[in-house]
Write a structure and sequence with these properties.
It contains eight helices and seven strands. By secondary structure, the chain is an alpha/beta fold.
Length: 179
């Protein structure tokens, strides 16, 4: 099925406008929305072939939007594009009706490939070593993200992580591991 009309749903205005402009320069008609409610209003008023949907948005979850769009427009190709990728959300997205799941940063060509059902292409050359972060670095980043999600409340973050508040404070006080 040719991809001609795309619904782009993301709360980040700069990212949304740049991606929309890039997709338009590739010949697609693009309508944008910042929230799931706006997206549903656009979807009901406009015919689209595919949608690019962010996971985390104010006013609702991108996963719920994927399920709603899939139920109302089953022939549309739905692509989830998120900065908070995980295996769990990828599985949930696919079960909800997403045809593809990509993580940010992604350029317009990668998004267009996902909309067209083409496999993900990697720019990494075969002879370059993988830059895999250490477990310490991943732990530090996870702690930072949970703390940010808790609005900086260390006690709440510690409860969510299942560790002592003082232990969390000690871990956060360390500099982030380099790799």
């Amino acid at each position: 099925m040719p991809m001609e009309r795309v619904l782009l749903v993301d709360d980040d205005l700069v990212f949304r406008d740049r991606l929309a402009a890039a997709l338009r320069s590739r010949g697609l008609a693009v309508k944008t929305a910042a929230t799931p409610a706006e997206a549903m209003a656009v979807a009901q008023a406009w015919t689209f072939d595919g949608a690019v949907i962010d996971l985390r948005m104010p006013g609702g979850s991108g996963l719920n939007l994927v399920a709603d769009l899939h139920a109302g427009w089953p022939s549309a190709r739905l692509v989830v594009l998120t900065g908070y990728g995980s295996i769990a959300t990828a599985l949930q997205a696919v079960r909800s009706g997403a045809a593809d799941y990509r993580t940010k940063p992604a350029d317009a060509d990668q998004v267009l490939a996902a909309l067209r059902g083409e496999p993900a292409a990697y720019d990494r050359e075969a002879d370059q070593p993988l830059n895999v972060p250490s477990l310490d670095r991943m732990e530090w980043e996870h702690l930072q993200r949970v703390l940010a999600d808790c609005g900086g409340n260390i006690s709440q973050a510690a409860r969510l992580l299942g560790i002592n508040r003082r232990s969390l404070q000690r871990k956060l006080a360390r500099y982030p591991p380099v790799r």
